[in-house]
Specification:
Length: 448
């Protein structure tokens, strides 16, 4: 199967260039929707558009829904107007809002004008919530059960109104003014006698506010093992539900974003093979410029201690080792704390504990590395230089882990993305401070 997939990825562009719609359909027809999505993400935009046109209408909509929003926007620009209208109208309101975020304002207005009044209202309502909020990602198509129903009446209500809902497996129960009083699962209704009041079988509601960050809402869904969570306004009135499939997409997106930024680049908004070389350059160049600016501080420190280096040239041998080790140590601490902050393991009030734990961790790591490296350093440069290096490693590793703990938590507190600020700050801090510490210890130990 793996070999066939490889051959298919190579054949699609050739079939598309030749306009062989029948051949494209024959190649894609045996594949399920995820496999088709995977193949379309691996080819260029023109091939993707031609291959997409070859898909049956029902399959095409399912494939389109699974594509990244950035690829959806590109694909719409390659399709005929009537095909675009059919696709946009067939999307769920939350998926439609995510797509329209990727398109120019003029295109968005044109697509909205082609929707029915009800579809347009639901979509514009979602677009009115802040970007990356639960309200932006929820579906307003929800079956809500009035609190006074019996189980039998509730099941009849679901049958009447469930056709257009995105999910009916988790059902909010609402009282006067659509205030959420609880939730009940469809399974619970099916296994309960018809004459039992719904109020007797509902569970206490877990809800999120519409202005809650989408990542926080997604973790609520995951941590509570929910199929969907009701989304409410400031007065606890039901607005819609945030479903588990959207929650998983959000978490995947946020993880990709954090991983990219922790590695010193901007996240790709498309699959790797669908991203142009210029796109790869744009995602990395800003960070490289920041790191080059940080490196100028290192040059300044080396210049300031030029006399020390002239007297003991052997000190220069260990500069890359020192700043590299300390940088890696700080990056480890920052990555750990960014992750712990993102999943809610630590909060800002835990800052003293976290910084203290990481400082002790850095001290122990620096001590361990110093003991391990003392013998080879002595053999290369002598015992005095080895002592300088050992003391510098202890101090710099402690400073690096402390900075790695402090920076992301403070960044989160002031509203910055911890992953964005941690990498360049720690690089700058470790390179400059580490060298200052190294040379000051060298002067003290060697009597320079």
């Amino acid at each position: 199967m793996a070999d066939r997939d490889t051959d298919l990825a190579l054949d699609l562009p050739a079939l598309a260039r030749g306009g062989d719609v029948r051949g494209l359909r024959a190649a894609l027809d045996p594949l399920d929707v995820p496999a088709v999505v995977d193949e379309l993400e691996r080819v260029d935009a023109l091939t993707r558009a031609v291959a997409f046109r070859a898909l049956p209408k029902g399959t095409a909509l399912a494939v389109f829904e699974d594509l990244d929003p950035a690829l959806q926007g590109e694909l719409l620009q390659e399709l005929r107007e009537e095909a675009v209208r059919d696709i946009v109208a067939g999307l769920d309101p939350d998926d439609r809002a995510g797509l329209l975020d990727e398109l120019p304002a003029g295109v968005t207005a044109r697509l909205l004008s082609g929707l029915t009044a009800d579809e347009r209202r639901m979509t514009t309502d979602l677009l009115g919530y802040p970007p990356e909020s639960a309200g932006r990602r929820m579906t307003p198509q929800v079956v809500a059960l009035p609190a006074g129903l019996t189980v039998g009446s509730a099941l009849a209500h679901v049958r009447r109104h469930g056709e257009d809902a995105e999910t009916i497996y988790t059902l909010p129960v609402v009282g006067a003014g659509r205030h959420v009083e609880g939730v009940v699962s469809l399974r619970r209704l099916f296994v309960t006698d018809d004459d039992v009041p719904v109020a007797d079988v509902l569970s206490d509601p877990v809800v999120v506010r519409a202005d809650t960050d989408q990542e926080v809402a997604a973790r609520v869904v995951r941590d509570h093992g929910l199929v969907a969570v009701p989304v409410v306004d400031a007065e606890d009135r039901l607005l819609g539900v945030f479903t588990v499939d959207d929650a998983m997409r959000v978490l995947e997106h946020e993880e990709d974003e954090d991983t990219a930024r922790a590695g010193g680049s901007e996240p790709l908004r498309k699959p790797y093979l669908a991203t142009s070389v210029l796109g790869l350059v744009r995602s990395r160049i800003l960070w490289l410029l920041v790191l080059i600016a940080a490196a100028t501080l290192t040059v300044s420190v080396l210049d300031a201690f030029e006399d020390t280096l002239d007297e003991v040239v052997a000190l220069a041998l260990f500069v890359p080792l020192l700043i590299g080790t300390a940088g890696n140590t700080g990056a480890q601490a920052a990555t750990t704390v960014v992750r712990a902050t993102a999943v809610g393991d630590v909060r800002f009030r835990d800052l003293p504990r976290v910084v203290g734990r990481e400082a002790v961790t850095g001290l122990l790591l620096g001590t361990g590395l110093s003991l391990i490296g003392a013998v080879p350093a002595s053999l290369v440069a002598g015992p005095e230089i080895a002592l300088v290096l050992a003391l510098a490693l202890v101090v710099v590793c402690t400073l690096a882990t402390t900075a790695g703990a402090f920076t992301p938590m403070v960044a989160k507190r002031v509203g910055l993305d911890p992953a964005v600020v941690s990498a360049p700050f720690i690089t700058t801090f470790v390179d400059a401070t580490g060298l200052v510490v190294y040379f000051l210890i060298a002067r003290a130990v060697l009597g320079l």
